[in-house]
Structures are given as structure tokens and as C-alpha cells.
Design a protein that fits this description.
Layout: E1 19-20, H1 40-53, E2 57-60, H2 73-86, E3 91-94, H3 114-118, E4 129-133, E5 137-138, H4 147-150, H5 158-165, E6 168-169, H6 173-185, E7 189-194, H7 197-208, E8 217-222, H8 232-241, E9 247-252, H9 257-266, E10 270-273, H10 289-302, H11 310-317, E11 321-323, H12 326-332, E12 348-350
Parallel strand pairs: 1-2, 1-10, 2-3, 3-4, 4-7, 7-8, 8-9, 9-10
Antiparallel strand pairs: 5-6, 11-12
Keywords: Metal-binding, Transferase, Zinc
Pfam family, one: BKACE
Cofactor: Zn(2+)
Length: 352
């Protein structure tokens, strides 16, 4: 991304698109009973509360009645339908991990099989987005979940810690290309969850060869454990390398969430919050997803930035837009053209 002398002036920035992740499948309901919804009605109401507070993108996971993260696509269909009815303008972003929570204390924390994750393209009603990882990567979330913050929660259990420490994100080349093909065919936009520059470079190569032809909505994930660590220089390097025409959201863990959200919003980028990322505020107190959204809204307004409505967020994300070819995609996202030349950047089509 490039910054002009007045790029940090709020009138030259998009409105703020707040993503909230309020379902937190790594936690159990007893970890934060005031804020972790369990019944389907509670899970739908949580989306409504978050939207009313100012979040326009819902990062969606689902729970079973026993409190564990659901792996049943029928439950995802049910929650998506409920959210669609309750807050139709909210962007529904299904977490591509489905539920990475282990079934019991002795089981590894695993993402579901490649074939099962492909079935996210068949959800009905269709979500607006599914998050997509690029490159198989270690995801040791325990590396930065310090013991003092886990005291009294389910993740204080050493067996669960061991399970999450060994978690891996499976996202090899063949799976990624097939997944992008299926999502695009279904008219579902991928939201790319990127672990560092290497993932951004791989994504650019996919665009250049035409494996993905659509807008680039990106999240930089600074959580350590195989991903970029929460070092501002990692983030700034990623911002520097990101294409001019993308949208970029910051994501981190625990007390790193607020600083990275503030950095992102000050630069014209976008924040992500919610209990999937942190249960606590900067003073160690429990902080609900709605409270975190309200905090982002306050910071954004102090910076002079307005909060995007659902309809405005859809326009910023270019929901429903796909392009005809690689050259058009490169131009629309602010990349240099392939050496063979660039096509007419106005040539776009809407998803079926």
C-alpha cells in the first residue's frame, strides 16, 4: 500500500468496517457465561447485539447445546438463516476452520477434512464470505496465551493446551485452488486469512495465474505460533506489501488486539475484535464482544472516522463482484499487470 501526505486524514479513508468474532470456539461457556451464547436463539441474538453496537461483519462459528463447537453443517445453515432474518445487512463470514475445538481433553485440535471444508460452498443460505487460509501452517495458539490470562478457564487444562499447541492449518496448493473454485462458483467471496508475507505472495501468484478472480479482502493475523508475531514491524511490512486495492483487517490475541486495532484504524484500515480474539481488556478485566465493538467505535470516532453501515461495508468489500480474467483482477486490486499486458479494468461481472 502507498500513503500520500494526506492519506492519514480521515476524509480520505473508507468508513470503518468492524469485524466481530463473538462465538469463540476455543472457549467453553463457563469461561465467560455472561457472553458466550449456547442456544440457537442466543447465538442469533449475539449477532443482533454486535450489529447494533457497530459491527458489520460477523465471523461465524456455531455451538452445540453441550457448549462445544459444532462441526455440523446443518447447524451452520440454521444459524446463517437466523442471522439473515434478524440482521439482513450484516456480512456473514463463516470461519473456514468450521470448529477447530477438540472433541475431548485427549484429542488433538484439528480442522475438518478437506472434503468437509469444501462443503462450506454448499451452505444454504449462502454466507457472504468464507475465510480461507493460504499455505499449510502451524497454528500454536498457546504460544501467546499466557498462563495468568488462562487461570480459571477451560484452557488452563494442560491436556487442552497440548492439543491446541499442536494444531496445524491444512491449506495446501491443490486444496486452496479447488476451494476457491467452489466458493466462486457458489458466488461466495473468500476472505483471506494470511499468516505473513509468504502467504500474501502465494495469493498474488494465484491471482496472476487466474486461480482467483475477485476482490482481495485480507486479514493479517499476528498471533505467533507459526503465524506472524504481534510485532508492529511485521504488521507494517505486511501493510507495505499489500496491494493498493485490497481491504485489510488486523487480527491479534489478548492485550495485543486493541493496539493493533488502533494502528489499523489510524492508517485507514479495519479492526477485528470479539471473544475469539480476547476475553479481556487492557486491565485484565473480562470484556464482552459488544464492549470491544463499542471501544472500536469510540476510537474510530476520536480518529475522525465514521463506522460503515451494513450496506456501506458490502460496497467496501465489493460483495458479489467477480472479474473475467487475471489481468482485470490484478488491475482492480492495484497490482502491476502480468507481463503480457493488462485487460480493461472496468470489465466485471456479478456473481450468479
Amino acid at each position: 500500500m502507498q500513503f500520500l501526505d494526506d492519506s492519514l486524514h480521515p476524509e480520505n479513508m473508507d468508513k470503518v468496517v468492524i469485524t466481530v468474532a463473538p462465538y469463540g470456539p476455543e472457549w467453553m461457556p463457563d469461561d465467560f457465561p455472561e457472553d458466550i451464547p449456547v442456544t440457537m436463539d442466543e447465538q442469533v441474538q449475539k449477532a443482533v447485539d454486535c450489529y447494533n453496537a457497530g459491527a458489520t461483519v460477523l465471523h461465524l462459528h456455531v455451538r452445540e447445546l453441550d457448549g462445544r463447537g459444532s462441526k455440523r453443517l446443518s447447524k451452520f445453515n440454521e444459524l446463517i438463516a437466523g442471522v439473515r432474518r434478524a440482521v439482513p445487512d450484516m456480512i456473514i463470514q463463516v470461519g473456514g476452520s468450521i470448529s477447530f475445538a477438540p472433541e475431548d481433553d485427549g484429542q488433538a485440535a484439528k480442522w475438518l477434512s478437506d472434503d468437509t471444508r469444501h462443503m462450506l460452498a454448499d451452505l444454504e443460505p449462502r454466507p457472504d464470505q468464507v475465510t480461507v487460509a493460504i499455505n499449510t501452517t502451524q497454528m500454536n495458539i498457546m504460544e501467546l496465551l499466557y498462563p495468568e490470562y488462562l487461570h480459571g478457564t477451560s484452557l488452563a487444562n494442560p491436556a487442552l493446551q497440548a492439543a491446541y499447541a499442536e494444531m496445524t492449518v491444512p491449506a495446501g496448493p491443490a486444496w486452496v485452488e479447488e476451494h476457491l473454485r467452489r466458493l466462486t462458483h457458489a458466488g461466495i467471496q473468500p476472505h483471506f486469512q494470511l499468516t505473513g508475507i509468504h502467504a500474501l505472495e502465494t495469493l498474488e501468484r494465484l491471482v496472476r495465474k487466474g486461480a482467483y478472480r475477485g476482490p482481495l479482502n485480507l486479514t493479517w493475523i499476528g498471533i505467533g505460533g507459526g503465524f506472524d508475531g504481534p510485532n508492529p514491524f511485521n504488521f507494517f511490512n505486511f501493510v507495505h506489501r499489500a496491494p493498493q486495492g485490497c481491504t485489510l483487517t488486523a487480527e491479534s490475541l489478548l492485550k495485543n488486539v486493541l493496539p493493533f486495532n488502533m494502528m489499523a484504524m489510524s492508517m485507514g484500515l479495519h479492526p477485528r475484535c470479539g471473544i475469539e480474539d480476547t476475553l479481556i481488556g487492557q486491565h485484565g478485566e473480562r470484556m464482552s464482544s459488544v464492549q470491544q465493538i463499542e471501544q472500536c467505535v469510540r476510537v474510530a470516532r476520536e480518529l475522525g472516522r465514521e463506522i460503515a453501515t451494513g450496506k456501506e461495508a458490502r460496497a467496501i468489500y465489493r460483495i458479489g463482484t467477480f472479474y473475467d480474467d487475471a489481468d482485470t483482477t490484478l488491475a482492480a486490486n492495484g497490482y502491476l499487470p502480468n507481463r503480457a499486458g493488462v485487460a480493461d479494468p472496468a470489465r466485471v461481472k456479478s456473481a450468479a
